């Protein structure tokens, strides 16, 4: 028997096309945008949302919504949960909203504003915003984030100062890959 969540996973992995990751061609990126998260990292993100079963997920830096769609598909497979996402680029927010994802609320704002105002009590954070915004988000989460929440920080191999801040979070690990992924619990 094939588990029903496989269908949500398949839908979340439907991209315009695929290209080799510029940092390491062994990985692939969706061609939906020139800065999409690697497909393999998106697959892992789906698994994290399925396994952790968060009620509230916060994503900072939605880009064109590839990761947002993966998160929402996993929440749909879980049968529960909401995603709050944002970006500072109006076109990215519009692209994410055009995907018509149930359980998703996308807005035009800085990631730190979203984290502080709407979702200080999230169960899972997907941090993938601009370099400077990521720093502020991680600092704020370290001091004020919900205890026990999981923080996933993308691009830790590309942005050294973000990696250093990520290492100040409790219970952290950095996964290798072309762009890197930090995992921590608060």
Q: Which sequence of strands runs across the widest sheet?
A: 5-4-3-6-7-9-8
How is the biggest beta sheet arranged? 7 strands, mixed
Give a count of the beta strands, DSSP E runs of length 2 or more: 9
* Helix run count: 7
Radius of gyration: 15 Å
Estimate the strand proportion. Answer: 15-25%
Q: Determine the fraction of residues in helical runs and give it as a percent range.
A: 25-40%
What is the N-to-C order of secondary-structure elements (H for helix, E for strand)? Answer: HEEHEHEHEHEHEHEE
The gross shape turns out to be: globular
Average residue-wise pLDDT: 91
Secondary-structure-based class equals alpha/beta
Return residue spans where pLDDT drops below 50 for at least 5 consecutive residues: none
Query: Ends: how far apart?
Result: 37 Å
Which terms would index this structure?
single chain, 186 residues, alpha/beta, 7-stranded mixed sheet
How would you explain this protein's 3D organization?
The chain is α/β, with parallel strands linked by helices and 186 residues long. It is built from seven helices and nine strands, in the order H-E-E-H-E-H-E-H-E-H-E-H-E-H-E-E. It has helices spanning 5-12, 39-52, 66-78, 90-98, 111-117, 131-144, 160-166, and strands at 18-20, 28-30, 56-60, 82-87, 104-108, 124-127, 150-154, 172-175, 181-185. Strands 5-4-3-6-7-9-8 form a seven-stranded mixed sheet, sandwiched between helices. The protein has a two-stranded antiparallel sheet with strand order 1-2. Strand 8 and strand 9 form a beta hairpin. Helix 1 (5-12) packs antiparallel against helix 3 (66-78) and helix 2 (39-52) packs parallel to helix 3. 44% of the residues are buried.
């Amino acid at each position: 028997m094939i588990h029903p969540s496989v269908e949500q996973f398949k839908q979340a992995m439907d991209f315009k096309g695929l290209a080799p990751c510029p940092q390491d061609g062994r990985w692939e990126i969706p061609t939906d945008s020139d800065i999409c998260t690697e497909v393999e990292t998106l697959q892992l993100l789906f698994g994290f949302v399925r396994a952790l079963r968060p009620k509230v997920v916060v994503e900072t830096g939605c880009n064109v919504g590839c990761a947002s769609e993966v998160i929402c598909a996993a929440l749909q497979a879980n049968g529960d949960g909401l995603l709050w996402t944002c970006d500072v680029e109006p076109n990215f927010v519009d692209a994410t909203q055009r995907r018509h994802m149930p359980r998703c609320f996308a807005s035009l704002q800085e990631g730190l504003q979203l984290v502080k105002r709407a979702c200080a009590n999230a169960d899972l954070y997907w941090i993938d915003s601009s370099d400077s915004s990521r720093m502020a988000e991680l600092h704020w989460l370290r001091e004020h984030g919900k205890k026990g929440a999981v923080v996933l920080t993308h691009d830790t191999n590309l942005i050294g100062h973000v990696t250093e801040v990520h290492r100040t979070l409790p219970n952290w690990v950095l996964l290798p890959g072309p762009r890197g992924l930090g995992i921590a619990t608060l």
